[in-house]
Design brief:
With 125 residues, this protein is an alpha+beta fold. It contains 3 helices and 4 strands, in the order H-E-H-E-E-H-E. 34% of the residues lie in helices and 25% in strands. It has a 4-stranded antiparallel β-sheet. The longest helix is centred in the N-terminal third of the chain and has 19 residues.
């Protein structure tokens, strides 16, 4: 009888301890708002440019940084930089910017980058 009482006592203590030491999951709150907002840009005179860029060594660092700097430039409505073809496609407001301004944005992004060719197009079709 005494053995059973001791066994029940130990079982109760271990069960109680297991409940006290149970881990609760950590809850992490993640901000799911996008970094950049989508804006509609009204262009006084829509223009298209094809820019050939030398000096990019990777898509994630170089091309993405140039694209980001082009996109945040006032007067540029859209910019996409393709690392493989070394080409940037830019839609901009010709009333605010010219091809030299776009070249300057690329060059000031980093010393390694240079514009070897830039041309204004009628469209990207």
């Amino acid at each position: 009888m005494k053995k059973n009482s001791v066994l029940i006592l130990f079982a109760s203590v271990f069960t109680f301890q297991a409940c006290i030491n149970s881990t609760t999951p950590n809850v992490i709150t993640v901000d799911s708002t996008p970094e950049s907002k989508i804006e509609t840009v009204l262009l006084a005179e829509e223009a298209f440019a094809k820019v050939t860029i030398e000096g990019m060594t990777c898509a994630i660092g170089c091309a993405a940084t140039i694209e980001k700097n082009l996109k945040k430039t006032q007067g540029i409505a859209s910019a996409e930089v393709d690392f493989e073809s070394k080409t940037a496609w830019v839609i901009y407001d010709a009333k605010q910017l010219n091809l030299e301004n776009i070249t300057t944005v690329v060059k000031t992004t980093g010393e390694a980058y240079s514009v070897t060719e830039i041309e204004r197009l009628e469209s990207f079709k």
